Amino acid sequence: MNRLDKHQKIGIDFDHTLVNSNKTHLFEEYILANPDKEYWIVTFRNNTGFWTREQTIFDLQSHTKLTMDHFEDIVMQVRQPDIATQSIILDGDESMHWKGLMCYERDITIMIDDMPEWVLPGCERYGIDFIDTFTL
User: Fold this and answer.
1) Are strands 73-79 and 81-82 parallel, antiparallel or unpaired?
2) How far apart are CA 113 and CA 102, in angstroms?
3) Exposed, middle or buried: residue 86 (CB in 10 Å: 0-12, 13-18, 19+)?
4) Which site in 83, 84, 94, 129 is 20 to 30 Å from 65, CA atoms measured?
5) Radius of gyration of the chain, Cα coordinates, nearest whole angstrom
6) What is the pLDDT tens value at each position of the chain, 136 positions in all?
7) Beta carbons within 8 Å of 2's beta carbon, 6+ residues apart
8) At 91, phi and psi to the nearest 5?
């Protein structure tokens, strides 16, 4: 978590990073111990009617010690699910760069995510530092 110390604005993925991860407690502890920093939730959600902004806030408060008072905002891209595979349909190059672009547009200098194959290319393109949730 020491890599976060030099960053003022931090982007963090939601599913399998901020919630439903064996590292959730580390992120909670860091955010609570460093309230002077800006934290942004930057996430993909699928468009099943269930993953709304309100549902994301509810999940945050249900699964962590955090509330939206700890975050600047949620930056969320909603995708149509592929009914056959139950996975989110991604638009290739556009999706691989979306989180990096969202960080760049908000002056977020580091992104934490569990899917480097879909996030690291955009972070590299826009000069955003990257932390892989699973190798933290």
Assistant:
1) unpaired
2) 14
3) exposed
4) 129
5) 14
6) 789 999 999 999 998 999 989 999 999 999 999 999 999 999 886 555 556 778 888 888 898 999 999 999 999 876 654 444 444 444 556 678 899 999 999 999 999 999 999 899 999 999 999 999 988 8
7) none
8) -95, 45
